[in-house]
Each structure stands twice: as structure tokens, then as C-alpha cells.
Write a structure and sequence with these properties.
The chain is mostly helical. It contains 6 helices and 3 strands, in the order αααβββααα. The protein has a single domain, classed as Sufe protein. Chain: A (Alpha-Beta Complex). The protein has a 3-stranded antiparallel sheet with strand order 1-2-3. The radius of gyration is 14 Å and the shape is globular.
């Protein structure tokens, strides 16, 4: 039995979906996630200055976290021609969506290394996804003053 806290349900399901597949199929699933990245809400589409660039990512990805009534909402944008980066952003956005602040902050920092993509993409790309999660958590802390 692990000493680490249980993952939130959405992130645990995403992790299991990836781990149930072979390496090539994991890349296909990542591409599917890239197509599921929600569009930015209109209020952010017109105010790109509110979004923070995750400079560690190889392609331009921008994020903004909202915390409303103690629940986390991550908005992200990445170019369609960068499906790996879009897929990472989509995984993190979907995985954090609606979590309590406490649950979101408890997501292990190494979550990106646990979903089986280390064998499928470069370490530089995994670092980008890790940075995306880290920046999201930092923004959550800033929003709640933690």
C-alpha cells in the first residue's frame, strides 16, 4: 500500500486509461485529449494579458486559474498544431476541474510522470507538463492566499 494520498477521481481515471494502453496507443489517447481542450471563456479570449505563459513548454501554452466557491477551474490555451502540449493542458484542465482547493493542491507534483507517457515523449515535454501543473497549483495558492 502506498503512503501517497489517493488521486482525485478524474486524475486517477486518466492515469488508468493511459496505463491500460501500450506506448503507441498512449500517444493516440494524448491526441484525443488535445481535441478535448475546452475553448477559453469569452472573458479571457478578449484579455490574453490575464493568462500566464508556461515557458517550460515547447509550444506556447497559457493558463489561468479561477477559484470560485472553493472549487478550481483551470483555463488553458495552446495551438492546435501542438497536439502534445494541448493534450497535456487538457489533461491538467480536466483533472483539476471542480476539485476543492485542498484536493487540487494535494495532487502529487510528479503526476505527469505517473501516467505512462515517460516512455512515449521526451523528458523535455514531461518537464513542460510538470511545470504546467506546478504553475496551476501556484496560481491556486495565490488566489486563496495560502
Amino acid at each position: 500500500m502506498s503512503d501517497t494520498p489517493a488521486l482525485p477521481e478524474a486524475l486517477a481515471e486518466i492515469q488508468q486509461d493511459f496505463l491500460d494502453l501500450g506506448v503507441k496507443d498512449r500517444l493516440q489517447l494524448l491526441l484525443e485529449f488535445s481535441n478535448e481542450l475546452p475553448a477559453l471563456p469569452e472573458r479571457y479570449a478578449e484579455h490574453p494579458d490575464l493568462l500566464e505563459q508556461v515557458v517550460e513548454c515547447q509550444s506556447p501554452v497559457f493558463i489561468f486559474v479561477e477559484v470560485t466557491e472553493g472549487r478550481v477551474h483551470l483555463h488553458a490555451t495552446a495551438p492546435r498544431e501542438s497536439p502534445t502540449t494541448r493534450g497535456f493542458a487538457s489533461i491538467i484542465a480536466q483533472g483539476l476541474e471542480g476539485l476543492t482547493v485542498e484536493d487540487a493542491l494535494a495532487v502529487p507534483d510528479d503526476y505527469p510522470q505517473t501516467i505512462g507517457l515517460v516512455e512515449a515523449v521526451s523528458p523535455l515535454r514531461i518537464r513542460g507538463m510538470t511545470a504546467l501543473l506546478g504553475r496551476a497549483k501556484r496560481q491556486i495558492r495565490e488566489k486563496v492566499g495560502a
